[in-house]
């Protein structure tokens, strides 16, 4: 039976891949841009959201990325960072998300004079405010932050040290984001060694704009516990989509270790990592036993929510049990202590009303 919109909204959700600078409320972006005199494509919320979504669906990566110049422009003060983080948590909670990991690159928010540490603290304050306000509104959500280093720049060691200094309250993991093709994880070998020796969780954007080799480098040199997107790992599977398959070492490693793939269906189509949601490699990867999770990536820029991503998958044939399995995989893939992951998994099981 097809799930209704209300039924999808009511399902508990876990999002592991959601960029803070890609999920602002349109009205907030317009208000903050006006305060600093930053020009936007539109000052009407619905139209601005439509423009961003059209750019994201244009097939032009340059147009897709234009939105981030606007969002980061207004995220250069502690007050604004706090507000954006708070609203992100509230919006996710209202969408049925019970656990969220919000990621952002501190180095992109220092143009207004903030230090990296001040950026981290402002975002964390906003997250905590959002969790408290959501609870007052009747929504129970837990949220955490992942710190990104930009893979085409050279501050990864500094951001890794920042992540370690804020481990616990303000940071649960480290990531590298930004242009993948031409900027391999090996450029940040020193940062990954530092994190590995400190046993700091790492997730790495890989297998989106580059192929399976990028995923392999993330899993090997980067010791990634999760892969951001990862959909092109299928390029390491001979005969993918057919009856007779031969898994290469990268795919076999990810499957054997149940490395969560932070799949973002709509965004993957928009960036050409997948031809369509119907023909997305995630379906076959899931059927093969890979730990496929469902995520938003950039809610404003892509014009999505967790509920809309669920609905899009339901249109391709996913049912409640399929959504449950992906959400449970996300719960167990969360960067939480084991007992807290178990508690989160129990909430998912209870919320879906399904038996294992």
From TrEMBL:
Recite the UniProt keywords alphabetically. Hydrolase, Metal-binding, Zinc
Molecular function (GO) terms listed? adenosine deaminase activity; metal ion binding
Where the record annotates domain Adenosine deaminase, the positions are 12-350
What's the EC number here?
Answer: 3.5.4.4
Q: What cellular component terms from Gene Ontology apply here?
A: cytosol
Picking any one GO biological process from the record gives: hypoxanthine salvage
Q: Organism's domain of life?
A: Bacteria
CC cofactor: Zn(2+)
Q: Which Gene3D superfamilies match?
A: Metal-dependent hydrolases
Its top-level enzyme class, in one word, is hydrolase
Segments passing through the bilayer: none
Q: Which family does it belong to?
A: Belongs to the metallo-dependent hydrolases superfamily. Adenosine and AMP deaminases family.
Q: What is this protein called?
A: adenosine deaminase
Q: Which organism is it from?
A: Demequina mangrovi
Q: What is the lineage of its organism?
A: Bacteria, Bacillati, Actinomycetota, Actinomycetes, Micrococcales
């Amino acid at each position: 039976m097809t799930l209704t919109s209300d039924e999808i909204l009511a399902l508990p959700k876990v999002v592991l891949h959601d960029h803070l600078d890609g999920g602002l409320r349109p009205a907030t972006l317009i208000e903050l841009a006006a305060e600093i005199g930053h020009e936007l494509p539109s000052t009407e919320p619905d139209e601005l959201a439509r423009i961003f979504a059209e750019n994201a669906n244009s097939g032009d990566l340059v147009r897709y990325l234009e939105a981030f110049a606007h969002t980061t422009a207004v995220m250069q003060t502690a007050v604004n960072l706090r507000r954006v983080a708070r609203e992100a948590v509230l919006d996710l909670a209202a969408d049925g998300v019970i656990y969220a990991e919000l990621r952002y690159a501190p180095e992109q928010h220092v143009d207004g004079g903030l230090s990296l540490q001040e950026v981290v603290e402002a975002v964390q304050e906003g997250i905590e405010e959002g969790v408290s306000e959501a609870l007052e509104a009747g929504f129970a959500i837990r949220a955490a932050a992942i710190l990104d280093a930009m893979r085409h720049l050279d501050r990864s060691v500094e951001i890794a040290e920042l992540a370690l200094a804020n481990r616990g309250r303000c940071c649960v993991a480290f990531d590298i984001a930004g242009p993948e093709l031409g900027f391999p994880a090996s450029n940040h070998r020193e940062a990954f060694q530092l994190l590995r020796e400190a046993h700091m969780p790492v997730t790495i954007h890989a297998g989106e704009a580059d192929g399976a080799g990028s995923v392999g480098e993330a899993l090997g040199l980067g010791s990634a516990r999760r892969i951001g997107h990862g959909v092109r790992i299928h390029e390491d599977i001979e005969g993918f989509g057919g009856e007779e398959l031969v898994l290469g070492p990268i795919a076999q490693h990810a499957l054997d270790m149940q490395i969560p793939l932070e799949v973002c269906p709509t965004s993957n189509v928009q960036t050409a990592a997948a031809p369509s949601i119907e023909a997305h490699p995630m379906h076959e990867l899931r059927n093969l036993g890979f730990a496929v999770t469902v995520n938003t990536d950039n809610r404003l820029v892509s014009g999505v929510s967790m509920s809309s991503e669920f609905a899009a998958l339901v249109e391709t044939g996913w049912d409640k049990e399929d959504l449950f399995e992906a959400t449970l995989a996300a719960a167990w893939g969360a960067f939480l202590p084991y007992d807290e992951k178990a508690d989160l998994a129990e909430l998912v099981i209870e919320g879906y009303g399904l038996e294992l």
